[in-house]
Structures are given as structure tokens and as C-alpha cells.
Amino acid sequence: MKKLHKIIFYSGLLIGLNAHAQLRVEISGVGSNQIPIAIAAFADEDIAPAKISAIIKADLERSGAFKIIDAGAIANVNDIDYSQWKSRGANALVVGTVEKLANGSFDVRYKLHDTIKATKLSQLDQSAVPQYTRLSAHKIADDVYEKLTGVRGAFATRIAYVTQQGRSFRLEVADADGEGVQLALSSNEPIISPSWSPDGTRVAYVSFEQKKPVVYVQNLVTRARAVIANEKGSNSAPSWAPDGNKLAVALSKDGHTQVYTVNADGSGLRRVSNSAGIDTEPQFSADGQSIYFTSDRSGGPQIYRMGANGGDAQRVTFGGSYNISPRISSDGKTLAYISRRDGNFQLYVMDLASGQEQRLSDTTSDESPSFAPNGKFLLYATESGRRKSLAVVSVDGRVKQRLTIQAGNIKEPTWGPFMK
Prior knowledge:
Blueprint: H1 2-9, E1 24-28, E2 35-41, H2 52-63, E3 66-73, H3 82-87, E4 92-100, E5 106-114, E6 119-128, H4 133-149, E7 158-165, E8 168-175, E9 182-187, E10 191-196, E11 202-207, E12 214-219, E13 225-229, E14 235-240, E15 246-251, E16 258-263, E17 270-271, E18 279-284, E19 290-295, E20 302-307, E21 310-315, E22 323-328, E23 334-341, E24 344-351, E25 357-359, E26 367-371, E27 377-384, E28 387-394, E29 400-404, E30 409-415
Parallel strand pairs: 2-3, 2-4
Antiparallel strand pairs: 1-29, 4-5, 5-6, 7-8, 7-30, 8-9, 10-11, 11-12, 12-13, 14-15, 15-16, 16-17, 18-19, 19-20, 20-21, 22-23, 23-24, 24-25, 26-27, 27-28, 28-29
Helix pairs in contact: 2-4
Organism: Pseudoduganella namucuonensis
Subunit structure: The Tol-Pal system is composed of five core proteins: the inner membrane proteins TolA, TolQ and TolR, the periplasmic protein TolB and the outer membrane protein Pal. They form a network linking the inner and outer membranes and the peptidoglycan layer.
Pfam families: PD40, TolB_N
């Protein structure tokens, strides 16, 4: 129960502060049936702060779904010789242009061509101020990914996590590729359990700055924040309802830790679990009708599901004697969690319809899983060489990434939603 108690008690919108440390991404493994795609240098892209074609290549390569063919520069992006690219083994071709406008912004245009059918598949025209040229590239990569795989891309989303160096804790937000790091909160006391609001404008988290765990919600646009739960004892593990109007939290105000719901402004606190054991780590289901949570009511920590307003709980996990940290995919079909087996804490997923489990990680000290909003990847924290880092794995286990910083530990990750 040591780790369960640890959970209970430690359980472009930002403005301006300098980044603490950039993330470094290392990729291993590839997906099955990679799509060969040629990506040309965008005409005049060197005038922009970010090299658009390089970002698109990196995004698509990181997904493991594509085999990248370097197309170099194309003299006339409006005159495509489909047979040439088909003969080079490319099923698709990305071309584009960058133009600086009189107001200082950049016009970024791209086209996606199907070389097999010799036709244009998609195009996108964007106007971006200089600091958002990277975002333009991520949006193009999202469009390519969706048109060629049928799944919405998540490259233009963001992640949040906590870094620790000595007694300095920082809640940071970054692009999904680890770039564009910005500071949300700095403290000399621990910060844990960040959780994105469904619209991506707010983050809930637990801070120990009052010498006890207190739940806050912070607006990432205005930087204003509010206390959501500061009851007697421990206030921990916030997670948002899909409508963004309510959170589930774990509180020990009545003795042992139980699950409560609370409005996003801190009003309307209501207890929804009722057991003689410890109930913690609540997570709303994708449709908001249920709450998954960790409980030791059966003797050891397992994952249960109950109605969003409480009621009888059904046990969900049965493989192994220790399963914690439930997370639900956006389509509601897959449960991710951390399971202890043979002394190792590892990332598992379960198909909720069949109950079939799959281990996704080969590390031994995993925690804090978080689904990408398209459900195709999982972000989690792990440990290697006594340093905590972040890792990303595809839900089929084939593609793996490691995200590290040069100094200190990085942990408590959460993947943000699709942005409007």
C-alpha cells in the first residue's frame, strides 16, 4: 500500500516567462504498414522563425506511421509530376510556400497530393504571427495525418508536466513535441497531479504551498487561479468532467480518502463514493456518466467504476493484485493504468469490451499515464538511471519515445485536449 498512500498524499496561451529547460525527444520503433510520404522544402520557408517542412517531417516521423522521403526543393509547387514521385516510392507528397505579409505575419500554404491517384487530397492556407509559425506546421502535420490515416492528428496539442530540481518545482506547458516550453507555476513546495480542462484553457493541480495538499484551478490565459478544494486533511487527484463544469477530487475530510465532485468554481462539493477503504484517483468516463477510481476495498488497490453521482461500484481490473491510476481513452473503449507485477510498476491497457490486457512499457517504475486526445498514444512518467523522465508509447506498443531534460527530474505528465 506504500505507493497507494503516496498517490493519496502526493496524488499559445501562456504569456511570457522564459522556458526552464527544453525537452529532448528520442524515438524508437516504427508502426506497421508505414505510409511512404515525400515532404518538400517549403518555398521561401527560411524567412520564417521556424522551418515548416522540418517540423512536419519530425511530427510525422515521431508518429511511426510514415516513412519519410526527403523531396528537397521543388521549383514549381503548382506543377506536380505525379509519375516522378510515384517512381521514387512516395504514395503522397507535401508541398508548400511561406510568404511574409506587410503586417509582419506569415502566410503559410500547403497542399497534399496523392501520387497513386494523381490528385490533390487536401490544402490549407494559414496566416500566422511569428510566434505561431510552429503551430502552423503542427496543424499541417495534423491534416496530413488525418487525410492519410483517417484519425485526427494530435501534433498541435500541448502537454503539461512538473519538473523538479532540488527543492524547486515548476509546472510547465509545452507543445506535444516538447518545444515551446512555458512556465505556469513555480514553487518551493511540491506540485502534483495536473489535469487539463476539456477546452485547454485551464489546468487543475495540487500544490503544497500551504504546507498541505490543496487543489487549484489556474487559467492559462489570464494566469488567475482559484482554490477548488481546501478541506481538512488531504485534497488531491483532480480530474475534469467532459463538460468542463465539474471536477472529481479525492478528499480525506471525513476520515479516510473518498471521491467527491465539485463545481469548477469550488462550489457544490458532494461526496460520491462510500466505502470503508481508500477511494482515490477519480477519472470521469468519456461520456461523463461514470467515474473510474482506485480503491483498496477488495484488500489491495484495484480499479472500479461507479455512476458519476455515486452508487454501486463494479470492479474493472482483475489481472494482478495491484492496479492503480485509471485513465480512459476519448472514445471510452480503452482503460490505461499502472499495474505492479513481479515487483515492477508498468503501463497496461485494457479493452473494456473484452477485458483483454496488454503491457505497453518495458520500463519498471511507471506512473501517471495520460492519453493523447486522439487515443493513439499514451504519455507517462518513468524512471531510468535514478532520473525521472517522460515516455510516449503508441497504444499498440510499437512506437516508443523518451522525453528528457538536461537537469533534474520530469514527472506528473498530462496530455492536453484538441484545441478549438
